[in-house]
């Protein structure tokens, strides 16, 4: 009999965190819980069963120390780090590099882990049904490409409104941009 979903997913996510620590050294891990409607919960289970373990992105800087940020249609007034869904067969660093390229046009080299979020997802109508996914933000150096919005690079349903390099962090950013231990926006 297979282990319960919560145990299987927690073990898999903790193994990924351990592997990233072996590769990159220590980094903060923030825990978060999200209550999901039944359909969205089952979507998370399906993602996990297909080998998708969450999401990854990067805090990319260039040779001048500028920070790469974007705005998207989910919260058009707020600047965020580029990132998106992990795909089956990818490592989390590969996901981050792919997502940065797709969303911004910039190629990057991963240098470390900024922070990880161990996300517990709970089925709202049955709180005993729960699982875990992982969100990792890496630190990275820009190594090529030109920052800009190119709709042809984006996944269906994804809308990036603006991409920019910043000498100083703007005031309207999500907290993780400046604080790796900040509570996640869920």
UniProtKB/TrEMBL annotation:
Matching InterPro entries: Nudix_hydrolase, NUDIX_hydrolase-like_dom_sf, NUDIX_hydrolase_CS, NUDIX_hydrolase_dom
UniProt entry tagged with the keyword Hydrolase: yes
MF term (GO), any: hydrolase activity
The enzyme's E.C. designation: 3.6.-.-
PROSITE patterns assigned: NUDIX, NUDIX_BOX
Key words, A-Z: Hydrolase
Keyword Cell membrane: no
Principal EC category: hydrolase
Record-annotated Nudix hydrolase domain positions: 51-186
Cofactor: Mg(2+)
PANTHER family referenced in this protein's UniProt entry, alphabetically: GDP-MANNOSE MANNOSYL HYDROLASE (PTHR43046), MUTT_NUDIX FAMILY PROTEIN (PTHR43046:SF14)
Protein name stated in the entry: NUDIX hydrolase
Organism (species): Halolamina salina
């Amino acid at each position: 009999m297979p282990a319960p979903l919560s145990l299987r997913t927690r073990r898999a996510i903790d193994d990924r965190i351990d592997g990233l620590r072996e590769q990159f050294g220590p980094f903060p891990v923030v825990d978060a819980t999200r209550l999901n409607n039944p359909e969205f919960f089952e979507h998370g289970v399906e993602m996990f069963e297909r080998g998708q373990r969450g999401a990854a992105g990067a805090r990319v800087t260039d040779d001048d120390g500028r920070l790469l940020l974007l705005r998207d249609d989910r919260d058009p007034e707020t600047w965020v780090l580029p990132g998106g869904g992990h795909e089956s067969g990818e490592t989390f660093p590969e996901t981050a590099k792919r997502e940065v390229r797709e969303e911004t046009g910039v190629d990057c080299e991963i240098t470390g882990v900024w922070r990880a979020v161990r996300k517990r997802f709970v089925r709202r109508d049955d709180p005993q049904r729960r699982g875990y996914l992982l969100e990792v933000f890496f630190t990275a150096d820009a190594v090529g490409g030109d920052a800009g919005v190119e709709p042809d690079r984006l996944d269906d349903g994804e809308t990036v409104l603006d991409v920019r390099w910043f000498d100083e962090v703007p005031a309207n950013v999500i907290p993780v941009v400046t604080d790796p231990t900040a509570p996640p926006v869920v």
